[in-house]
Amino acid sequence: MTMAFSAISSTTPSFTLSCKKHKSPSSHQVRVSLKPLSFSVKASSTSIGYSSSSPSVADKQSLTLKSNNWQWKFKNNSINIYYEEHGRESLEPPKNILMIPTISDVSTVEEWRSVAQDIVQRTSDVSWRATIVDWPGLGYSDRPKMDYNADVMEEFLVDFINAPDSPLSLSENDLVVFGGGHAATISVRAAKKGLVKPKAIAAVAPTWAGPLPIVFGRDSSMETRYGLLRGTLRAPAVGWMMYNMLVSNEKSIESQYKSHVYANPDNVTAEIINSRYALTKRDGARYAPAAFLTGLLDPVKSREEFLDLFASLDGKIPLLVVSAEGSPKRSKAEMEALKGAKGVNKYVEVPGALLPQEEYPTIVAQELYKFLEEIL
């Protein structure tokens, strides 16, 4: 999820920006304004009470949010990983949902907050607790300069779920995973290997190819260009200059949101743009996005591998695929390939583009909650 790039030289790799407008679904004109919650993201531990007026939930639910940092031990380093826990008071132990943000240059827990709040406050026989976690190198987590790739991200996810000090505090199979974009595919890949054993997985607008590979392919010539661009973005001085020009400016972020991240440009608010722009100014902000843009975070290399991941869980783990009506053409084709595919128990389509869970949270939450009821 980022600006599309065009390679324009056959000798010296260079890249310019271009974007294509995608029309929003005509049957859904929903205005959404995401308001960041009022707490310090670097707080060691914060508990917040909040309320909701949603007609689908009880009028007076005691809801809580706790923000914190978990220390991920990776190659003798300790990396601060930011996460949030959304829940409501209940006499019964809650069941766990892990919500993982879409990997992008502006990836953040904020994209799942409204969905989390919607689900945990619903009254039923089951009490749910939703944990949203930022990837290393993205969102509000630390962003060290290291070699980010799909294996590193998978290792993080496995450790976050399975570590003895994991914030999830799981009993056997007491976890449902909701992932967006690449996060969904990485989760399925980890499950295929048996490294994680969730009760179910919901893949929301799942993707597997980064912005450049999905547009320009992965032949040796393009891989060379990607490597040069990645190296430039990681360089001390010129890297920041290029990153500021391509990604870390309000106009670029607004352009990508209006062209392919959201389906309805009217839903893109100044508040959202300002929030995402602030993320791009964090220390080390360019390292993980440089890997994502150039395909290093891609969990597979082809549609065949993509379909094989989902097929591998057939009869083992229930899988829901939530496709988005207004997704960019190439990404939408990959989502549609999962319709009726082996291993996919249920396939639904919702309005939106690459972030339907943020743009249309009420609709997405409703589909996810139906899935939760079905698997129970």
From TrEMBL:
Lineage top rank: taxon: Eukaryota
InterPro entries named in the record: AB_hydrolase_fold
Matches recorded under Gene3D superfamilies: alpha/beta hydrolase
One GO location term (cellular component): chloroplast
Signal peptide: none
PANTHER family attached to this UniProt entry: ALPHA/BETA-HYDROLASES SUPERFAMILY PROTEIN, ALPHA_BETA-HYDROLASES SUPERFAMILY PROTEIN
UniProt-recorded name of the protein: AB hydrolase-1 domain-containing protein
Record organism: Turnera subulata
